[in-house]
Amino acid sequence: MTTELPEGYWMDAKGALIPVSAIKPEHQEEDALVRELVAEAEELSARLAAFKARALGDVQAFRDLVAEKYGARRGGQKGNVTLSRFDGSAQILVAVAENITFGAELEAAKSLIDGCIHRWSEGANANLRVLIDQAFMVDKQGKISTHRVLGLRRLNIDDADWTRAMDAISDAVRVTGTKTYVRAYKRGQREDDRIPISLDIASV
């Protein structure tokens, strides 16, 4: 909702009305520049959203067409799929990623792991402690890195308490939702090169 301002006045960040004549020319130029760039950014964002919706819809329709050809019934939306040009020069990938958090069982897992390290302390490599501490370290948003914690399960350690800790990590996993990504690729100079076509403004 846009507030109607008296002619010759602008509103500042605190909601006060300021005469345009009292606003420095460079601040007026800054305002105009930001307005222009934000409007263009919003337009690009809308176009990206429209592209994603169209891509997902078209890929979904294609998958349904293929399933219908073979008399199969596809179950739900979940699942990754890669579509390629006939000559292999470009691909579209639709990927579904799960959003994962951890429940209270994670605290039990950390306690069990700490107990393991305490028992192994005399002969254990100090790097193992660093690995564990990093896995359970929280980021600036207070979140634990899911891939680091889940990566602990790949360690081949023959210990009953460690096994119980890994079971606790598995039980702690909560899938809170999914997010669908559309990625486009083109072939590089070599046939096995796959170069992503960036849809991220930070990487173009």
Task: Characterise the protein shown here.
A 4-stranded antiparallel β-sheet has the order 3-4-5-6. It has a two-stranded antiparallel ribbon with strand order 1-2. It has helices spanning 25-69, 105-120, 126-135, 146-151, 160-172; strands at residues 9-11, 17-19, 81-84, 90-102, 173-187, 194-197. Helix content is 44%, strand content 21%. The mean pLDDT is 85. It has 204 residues and is of the alpha+beta class. The protein has 5 helices and 6 strands; from the N terminus they run ββαββααααββ. The longest helix is centred in the first third of the chain and has 45 residues, at 25-69.
Strands, helices and their partners?
Blueprint: E1 9-11, E2 17-19, H1 25-69, E3 81-84, E4 90-102, H2 105-120, H3 126-135, H4 146-151, H5 160-172, E5 173-187, E6 194-197
Antiparallel strand pairs: 1-2, 3-4, 4-5, 5-6
Task: Give short descriptive properties of this protein.
4-stranded antiparallel sheet; alpha+beta; two-stranded antiparallel sheet; 204 residues; 44% helix
Measured as a percent range, the helix fraction is 40-55%
Instruction: Indicate the low-confidence ranges by residue numbers.
Output: none
User: Shape, please?
Assistant: extended
Major sheet attributes: 4 strands, antiparallel
Number of helices: 5
Helix/strand/pairing category: alpha+beta
Terminal CA distance reads 33 Å
Give the SSE order as H and E letters: EEHEEHHHHEE
Strand order of the largest sheet: 3-4-5-6
Summarize model confidence as the mean pLDDT.
85
Percent of residues in beta strands: 15-25%
Radius of gyration: 27 Å
List how many beta strands DSSP finds.
Answer: 6
